[in-house]
Write a structure and sequence with these properties.
The protein contains seven helices and seven strands, in the order βαβαβαβαβαβαβα. With 189 residues, it is of the alpha/beta class. The protein has a seven-stranded parallel β-sheet with strand order 4-3-2-1-5-6-7. β1, α1 (19-34) and β2 form a beta-alpha-beta unit.
């Protein structure tokens, strides 16, 4: 894998979140930008999405928002994006979020974030990409999800190698260190 240019961030658009999640989103946006990387994300101005984008933009980083046309029409887009890309629908948005990045990070989020996270995990498992994926486990938010994955491994629904498809970080700095040191795995013959 070459140098990281853009990082896709999956996260919540909800405004009703505890400060610890909000602070992590702000720290992540800033950390990405100070490394000279761009943020690629869902384009929303609210919730963790808006905080990541605003922090990256304020730190001088590029911010690429990718939003379905239908959502864009509702006026929820972050107007500080370097580039706003309109997608046909949510499936098209997910495709572009993956295509426009060199790495992916999932902050805590809801159903949409979970869907996006699992889609890129499965894509990596099937060999469609080899990009680093980080699950940022702020305040141990993802512990139940990680327990479910272990449960799937225990019952043979998930291969143990599934653990190696993503990295669990407990801080923004740990996530950044992982991305800076990431080595693309050697394909199996």
């Amino acid at each position: 894998m070459g140098a990281i240019r853009n990082v896709t961030v999956y996260c919540a658009s909800s405004r009703r979140l505890a400060d610890v999640y909000r602070e992590s989103a702000t720290a992540l946006g800033r950390a990405i930008a100070v490394r000279g990387w761009g943020v690629v994300y869902g384009g929303d101005r609210d919730g963790l999405m808006g905080l990541v984008a605003h922090a990256a933009s304020s730190a001088g980083g590029s911010v690429i928002g990718i939003m379905p046309q239908q959502l864009f029409k509702t006026g929820v887009a972050f107007d500080g994006c370097t580039e706003m890309v309109l997608a046909r629908d949510m499936r098209h948005r997910k495709e572009m979020l993956e295509d426009r990045c060199d790495a992916m990070i999932a902050l805590p989020g809801g159903l949409g974030t979970l869907e996006e996270f699992f889609e890129v995990i499965v894509g990596k498992q099937l060999g469609f990409h080899h990009k680093p994926i980080v699950l940022l486990n702020v305040q141990r938010y993802y512990d139940p999800l990680l327990a479910m994955i272990e449960h799937g491994i225990e019952h043979h629904f998930i291969k143990p190698e599934g653990r190696d498809l993503f990295f669990v970080a407990h801080s923004v700095e740990q996530a950044m260190e992982y991305l800076e040191e990431y080595q693309c795995p050697t394909p199996k013959p």
